[in-house]
């Protein structure tokens, strides 16, 4: 079989290797599709750490950083009772760095407890990004915990893949009015196609006019200081932080006086993944909208360049094409 390995900054190899075998509690998956996690892919290819204070050590483990996969079980390892040969599965969580093979490969051994069986009628682009949907659902579970969704007016900042999922989750969980906020016209248009009530630039005048005043809740999916501070300035309730922040954000007198609460991120969990999967399977959450390009996995470097030039939101790679 073939696998991808990033061996140095901006250098990848498409390698011939022996077929892997599933271990205890694992199944072997023939990977139909694997979607990019743009920040991970861009950082791992460039050599710049994803998180402040971290480091990138080359060569990366083969197959990393691929983790958003969908495929079919072709072999069952010992100790596995819940899955079977032929089952259609998608990964609901990233297994982290301590694995022998990441998802950028034609066949991948995968721990059963990190997989969910999925509807066989779903196209690969409609389910491969289940892990991202789980991640965003974690933020919405926090909002649900504090009764900050049903009947509320919600702004979502950043119409990248996470933001496009977030605006759909806002509607699915009962928001009354959803505003998409992004400086890029094309991304605002994508949000409008998903049924948001209005899409605006992050500018005071247009936002105030569109929203009719501060919103009840905001979700930041950009992970940028300017985005978070803009949302804090136009929210009278809570701002939930989904995007990975790399800079400090100013919370001062104005936010304190306006009683703006900040919600940090929660923990990845299977329950959130199952809630997201239910929304996907009943048609209330469309993941295919975040995939803008489809390429053979052997063209990985070209796909990452599409991400770097902002021509792509997510790339769907086909390992067996």
Question: Would you kindly provide a written description of the structure presented here, covering whatever features stand out?
Answer:
Helix 6 (225-232) links the parallel strand 11 (215-220) and strand 12 (235-241). The two termini are 12 Å apart. The protein has helices at residues 38-46, 130-145, 161-172, 185-193, 204-211, 225-232, 253-257, 270-281, 300-308, and strands spanning 2-8, 11-16, 26-35, 68-76, 88-91, 107-111, 115-117, 153-157, 177-181, 198-200, 215-220, 235-241, 261-263, 293-296, 315-318. The mean pLDDT is 96. It is of the alpha/beta class and 321 residues long. The chain folds into two domains: 2-129 and 291-318, Medium-chain alcohol dehydrogenases, catalytic domain (Quinone Oxidoreductase, Chain A, domain 1, Alpha-Beta Complex); 132-263, 3-Layer(aba) Sandwich (Rossmann fold). The strands form three sheets. Strands 3, 4, 5, 6, 7, 14 and 15 form a seven-stranded mixed sheet that branches. Strands 10-9-8-11-12-13 form a six-stranded parallel sheet, with helices on both faces. The chain has a two-stranded antiparallel sheet with strand order 1-2. The protein contains nine helices and 15 strands.
